[in-house]
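Task: fold both queries, return tokens.
Query 1:
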Amino acid sequence: MANKKLKVTLVKSLIGRLKNHQASVRGLGLRRINQSVVVDDTPENRGMINQVYYMVKVEEV
């Protein structure tokens, strides 16, 4: 079974967000709005994405 990948794009600003939400976005490797990263579909990454669902867009790759 091949590793699944997720493409995560930051669509909203981090300014004024909770510190742990900012940390989750940084943990996913996102720095600026409209930046996209491809991450493994792991429970850890899913947890960070679920926490900041309102700031990111997720696509399966």
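Query 1 returned. Query 2:
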Amino acid sequence: MDTFLLILRVGLALAVVMLLLWMAQKKLAKGNSGGAGVHLDVVSRRNVGQKASVVMVDADGMRFLLGVTEHNVSVLHSGPAPEPEPAFSAALEYAGTADGLIQPSSDKRPRSEPNPLSGSILSPKTWQQAWAAVRKGFNL
């Protein structure tokens, strides 16, 4: 009975401490929303010393080159951010056009519906290919 009460007290104390830590984290996170409207992306970062680095940052359409040390952050250069590259799907759509230099296939065979399991571990074809590779590797 004494062991049970001890475990209960320790569990209750742990729960209270966790609750207090959670409340403190929520309180600190609320007070840290000074730049909530600014979109910030770290493009790249290079270390130039043990405690110094150069960081390229995009913020609100501007690109900044920052020198970062242990005690200081300074702007080395700034300018307009470059336009983002087109999305992968847009590039694929362009590749399928005549401008993308990919010509339609002259193959007139009807295309079968893609198997939803194609390429997954659940596909029988995947297991057949794996077994063929094992047989070839062991010369079976």
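Both queries returned. Flag for query 2: Residues 2-27+40-80 form one domain.
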